[in-house]
Design a protein that fits this description.
The protein is an alpha/beta fold and 288 residues long. It has helices spanning 3-21, 27-39, 100-113, 127-142, 148-164, 170-176, 184-191, 193-202, 215-222, 234-243; strands at residues 45-48, 59-62, 71-72, 86-92, 114-125, 247-252, 280-286. Helix 3 links the parallel strand 4 and strand 5. The protein starts with a helix and ends with a strand.
Length: 288
């Protein structure tokens, strides 16, 4: 067995033991990293559900960390940190993967972790913008405007697919796997780099299939973290944040923030200034 394959195998086994049984968990490592930064008098910035968007100035946490730049942790569980130990918490395209009760639980946990004056910044798909784009595409399709039928087809997928899919990638990946994607510039404008990167990978490749009639397989997939379990607009998320004890929920552009120096981390923007996830809205709220 090659060294790289052995390392991957060990990492996989370690992750399984951690997530299933709590053995060899990254919990102590997360806490030690926060303590190290506190000793260095560095601000404690948590990046929850970071995926591939990690930054060295942040404590990066994801369901499946790489063991190098990102710690593994199931955010359905209490984070292994002391109350009022963090200055900023950031989570991009995380909250919609939790049902309503679990989302509230996570936000209450974040509220406890933040120091007085601390800030949470959330990025989620913008339900209002998606709904308005869908209705516009429907109106234009009814008028037989050029390309409107294809835009309407895409907006139905964007609105529904991640809520209802039973297999990885769902209808979205099938659409992106076509030899030629209709109204591609429209999709690129709405989805951004996520589409352009995925398109390179999935072009002309058949989507992964699952036995739809197998309830166990479907249930395991739907509880695996890929699907969306709820959606938000700025009004509903601001209300939820206030219910969880945060104050002054405020929406920002991707390139704006009340967090000093945030835009320089390029978590919501790419180096060229474009928005990483343009189908989103960006909201911050605070702790007193």
């Amino acid at each position: 067995m090659s060294t790289s394959l052995l390392h991957k195998t060990i990492s996989r086994v370690r992750w399984e033991l951690s997530m299933r049984y709590g053995i060899l968990s990254d919990g102590p490592a997360i806490k030690n990293e926060v303590l190290r930064r506190q000793r260095n008098q560095s601000p404690i910035f948590l990046n929850l559900g970071c995926g591939t968007c990690a930054h060295s100035d942040w404590v990066n946490i994801d369901f499946r960390g790489d063991g190098i730049t990102t710690f593994s942790w199931d955010l359905r569980n209490k984070l292994p940190l002391d109350d009022q130990s963090c200055d900023v918490i950031y989570a991009s395209h995380v909250l919609e993967h939790f049902d309503c009760d679990a989302a509230r639980k996570l936000l209450l946990e974040c509220r406890k972790l933040l120091r007085p004056g601390g800030c949470i910044r959330l990025v989620v798909p913008d339900l209002e913008a998606i709904a308005r784009a869908y209705l516009l595409s429907l109106d234009e399709a009814r008028l037989n405007k050029l390309g409107a039928a294809s835009r309407h087809e895409w907006m139905v997928i964007e609105l529904l697919d991640q809520l209802v899919r039973h297999q990885s990638g769902g209808e979205m990946m099938k659409y992106w796997s076509q030899e030629s994607v209709p109204e591609e510039s429209f999709i690129t404008e709405r989805v951004g780099a996520e589409y352009t990167h995925a398109r390179k990978f999935c072009r002309t490749k058949p989507a992964t299939k699952v036995a739809i009639g197998n309830a166990k397989s479907v249930g395991k997939f739907r509880l695996g973290g890929e699907v969306h379990l709820w959606m938000y607009d700025d009004f509903s998320l601001a209300s939820l944040l206030q219910d969880c004890g945060f104050i002054n929920p405020t929406t920002y552009k991707a390139s704006e923030s009340s967090i000093k120096g945030f835009v320089n981390f390029h978590l919501d923007t790419l180096l060229d200034g474009s928005v990483r996830k343009p189908d989103s809205f960006f909201i911050e709220a605070y702790v007193v």
